[in-house]
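User: For a benchmark we're assembling, each entry needs the component sequences followed by a predicted structure for the full assembly. Here are entry 17's components. Please fill in the structure.
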Amino acid sequence: MVAVDIIFAPIFLSVLVYFLTKGAEHITKYIALGWFLILFFISLSWLHQLPDHGFLQLGTYLKVPLFNFDLTLQVDALSVAMLLLTSLLLILVVFTSWNEKNQASYFSLLILFSGPIFGVFMTTNVLWFFMFWELTLVPMLFLVGIWGAERRVYAAIKFFLYTHVFAMFMFVGFFLLYKQTGYWDITQIKEAALATPALIWWLMFAGFAAKLPLFPFHTWLPDAHVQAPSSISVLLAGVLLKMGAYGLIRFTVELLPNTTREFALWMVAFGLLTTFFAGMLAVYEKHIKKMVAYSSISHMGLVVVAIATMTYDGLSASLYEMIGHALVISPLFLIAGWFHHKTHTWYMNEMGGIMKFAPYASAIFILAGMAALGLPGTMGFVGELTIIISAVKSFGWWIAVIALGGFISAGYIIWSVRRAIHGEPSQIVLNSTFEMSGAEKFALAIFTGLIIYFGVVPQPIFDVANKAFSSFFGGM
Amino acid sequence: MSFIVLIATGLLIPLFYRNNIFIAKMIAIAAFIVAAFFVYQGQSLNSIFPYFVMTKSTMIMEFALLATLAAVSLTLTGFERPLIAQMLFLAGVSLALLETNNFFVFIVLFEVVAIISYILVANIRNFFNAEGAIKAFIAGAVASGIILIGFALFSFTSESFNYSDMNVSGKFTLIAVAIMLAGIFYKLTIVPMHAWAADAYSQVNHAAAAILSGVIKSVVLVATFKAFYKFMIAYPTATVLIFSFFAIITMTLANFMALWQKRISKILAYSSIAHSGYALIPFAAAASIYSFAGILYYAVAYIFMQTSVFLILNDFRREAGVKHLKDIKGMGQRAPLHSLFFTVQLFSLAGIPMLAGFLSKAIAFYAGVDAGLWVIVLIAALNSALAVGYYVWIIKHIYFDKAENEAVIKMSAGSLIGQLILLAGTVYFGVVAGNVINAGMHFSF
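Assistant: Structure for entry 17:
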């Protein structure tokens, strides 16, 4: 019962939190923190209970025999990795939004968000997956639209509509899956034959590509991530984008392997285009948070290339890079948002010399930046290296051009460090006061610790990847 | 029995109008509860008259109908008191319409519902109300005439009017059915027979509009599907062509029109028209075994959400004079409860999961995919994504904009309970799908 409760309890919990904490809003963050810690430890216990390969059964609820529309909950290593990442980011987000305004509504929306996002990674029923997928949009709409920056309403509505429209293609794809196999559950669909796999593949791919986002479908992201408050940017980049990558692995690689192999080069093309295009835009960008947002898109392109290899190595690398991307991009977003909060400017050429006044934040920005460009000893290096190796193994030497992606990211990271952090302090910086709360410092320290720890000791993540993907292709 | 209880209460209830309207409301609710009890016992018209059959699907729709009408009567205030009696009549006639298995009785009851709807909209307080009411009346009268022409033509070709043994292969049957459908499309507000509805729904009293666009439309959808099922099976190509065509133009045009509007009631009116378009997909997919489950789920979900949004708008108009989008700016602060209910129901209309609106669309659309109409379903799905635009636009005004006026709006106890009933329906049918699907798939006359 625990499994189904942690999906549905947040709905009631958030309403209770919202209405019962009038006048004592500051407790809401403790309630949220407690709830996310519970989620984290439950996910951790599932990690320990996982079988060597395949799914850990968590029960089937709300049975509808005629339509097979049962809420089947089961997790494998891939889902548990995502759940751990999600709950970890949620916990850290509570710290980074310690002093947010309107705490009752803010944290009740965060609690509300935790339910469907867990559902997305826990259910194997396609229709329920889609329901949770859509439901994550609602709290995000309000979190971006109410707490965001100047153009928050535009960004929130654009984000909502964009992902919703593309989800509709996926929706029809899922319908065709059920129509042609008679099952909603992916573990059963896998064994059935499909009549029009290519059509289904493209319909589903459109939904995932818009979420990732891949190059032609990416325009919602710079707006949403820039206008969202920094803590919510962390969730958008760390969790919502991962839904797209998770969906690609679950529903294309695992479910339709032969069709995916057929279209693998398309995926590579989209991934490469995304990496280069977003990287070039990041170089050009003066807006610090937009630069980080484009860097985020550029790294997701690498993840797609890794997924397209369809090999054990590639998928492990993609899982590693997904986690690495979440941990690396989060401090960048947080500090970029914090710089704006303190200097009231978004533009890097108006900043400069922040290092002198905010050494802690600047140091972490530089470190996370170095991780983003793939410095050895950080998560970025292991992620990019494994992706390049696995891609070269699968597609031949020409694919090594993605190493240029790392080259471009070195360009924009180093240049932005040069402009914003080093150099002579600008007048704007001189007039600002840089103070960081203890909670924020704590969260940033955790991110930094994890980036270095998993950069030096990557094996724990590859162990999880081994459990997740060994059953796909026979293992190593 | 339930029919008699409802009609008798409806006849008696005007006696209580003079005193406190509260007593009248309580009597009406008692009548709805008793009627629901009799429905639960399986004692409806079938125990008294022939031509009526009670099945599980009918039962579910009737419960939804009675719960919705009880919720509506809880929220009414002083001058809306005539609606109470009209709702009781409407409930009685709707039960009959849902239960009938005879085409002749269907046509007669359909006209009776139409007449009740003319009386509903005749609660006139100003010029706007009058314009809406007259449009509803004239369009309804034209529709009745058209339906009767079609029915007259059909009655030449069939000996029996029982759904199970109607003669559907007569010489004029197809043209007769097409004529009848043209009339019924007026009632279902299908483009291009929708023009009256955009004005009527938005200009008559909002409580009456709630009943007109939510309750009556849902009942008519289910009853029409049952009545025309045999024809739709007999003429599969014509069915797919006619209903797909009208579904697509209805939803597309209504959604684009809704995006243009400034008056909230007009947005909701066009949204209601767009929903009729989605609801035509199970008709087009009549060949699928999921078609009746689709239409039943659609009606059950739609009755709760559409009624609820118009009732909240009624509260807003009464308490704060809300007409245009700009009037609801900042309602999230001014009226937190109203706004919460409004938002949840709008999300349901938009098709956000865990709410009835999503599952109803999912099953109705699945019926389409099952019948091989996946292109039409894709168009419908994209349309419903487009529709999210104007629903979110309303929500944007409620929560993201600053209020121009700080006066707080309190929710009355009656409204609160009524809205809770409707919300319970929306949430329950958003998660628990088993009952309706089982009932819909074991469908027989």
